């Protein structure tokens, strides 16, 4: 796990240019950064499979904290898969500045961070404060947030594939009803 994290850190310093595929790089440079960006999926996949393997042999009673952990794993993995799509420089040229990138970014970074923060709070709050959180409300909070995140961000992938831009004050008539 440590080596996977270290490799992600090193490769992260190598793949920075995949964010600028649209600046007119020659085909060889784009191919290099496409390859380097796809290679970063290997240690990331190792991390995800190691996280999942911690459940191996365990009885899944689906405790409230396990809901949050499994929710994080699902959302992070889905976001990672969309990142592999964006690693391809040709597809990145098509999806650049579209809602597809917005959805990918939110699944991997924003929602991953929120879910891990909530896992920490759910686990440590009773230990630190001595007050238990209502179990039914915790499950309800998970369901509302998990469904809300997917209802909000998953359709953005399809909007991005259709070319819906981000950061525009007015959208093209194609995207209005």
> How much β-strand is present in the residues?
under 5%
| Overall pLDDT | 83
Order of helices and strands: HHHHHHH
Write down the Rg: 19 Å
The CA-CA distance between the termini, in Å, is: 49 Å
Strand tally is 0
Largest sheet: none
Principal-axis shape equals: globular
| Helix residue percentage | over 70%
Low-confidence stretches: none
* Tally of individual helices: 7
Helix-strand category = mainly alpha
List keywords for this structure.
mainly alpha; 177 residues; 72% helix; 0% strand
Report a brief summary of the structure:
By secondary structure, the protein is an all-alpha fold. Helices cover 72% and strands 0% of the residues. α4 (64-87) runs antiparallel to α6 (99-129) and α6 (99-129) runs antiparallel to α7 (135-161).
Structure description:
The chain has 177 residues and is mainly alpha-helical. Helices cover 72% and strands 0% of the residues. The protein has helices at residues 2-14, 27-39, 41-53, 64-87, 89-95, 99-129, 135-161. Helix 3 runs antiparallel to helix 4, helix 4 (64-87) packs antiparallel against helix 6 and helix 4 packs parallel to helix 7. The radius of gyration is 19 Å and the shape is globular. The mean pLDDT is 83.
Write the layout of secondary structure elements.
Layout: H1 2-14, H2 27-39, H3 41-53, H4 64-87, H5 89-95, H6 99-129, H7 135-161
Helix pairs in contact: 1-3, 3-4, 4-6, 4-7, 6-7
């Amino acid at each position: 796990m440590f080596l996977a994290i270290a490799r992600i850190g090193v490769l992260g310093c190598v793949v920075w240019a995949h964010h600028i595929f649209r600046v007119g790089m020659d085909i060889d440079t784009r191919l290099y950064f496409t390859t380097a960006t796809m290679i970063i999926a290997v240690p990331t996949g190792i991390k995800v499979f190691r996280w999942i393997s911690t459940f191996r042999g365990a009885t899944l009673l689906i405790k409230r904290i396990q809901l949050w952990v499994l929710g994080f794993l699902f959302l992070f993995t889905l976001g990672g898969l969309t990142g592999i799509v964006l690693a391809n420089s040709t597809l990145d040229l098509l999806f650049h500045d579209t809602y597809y990138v917005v959805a990918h970014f939110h699944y991997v970074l924003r929602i991953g961070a929120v879910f891990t923060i909530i896992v920490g709070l759910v686990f440590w709050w009773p230990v630190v404060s001595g007050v238990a959180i209502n179990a039914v409300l915790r499950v309800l909070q998970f369901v509302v947030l998990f469904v809300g995140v997917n209802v909000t961000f998953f359709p953005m992938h399809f909007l991005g594939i259709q070319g819906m831009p981000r950061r525009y004050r007015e959208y093209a008539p194609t995207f209005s009803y």
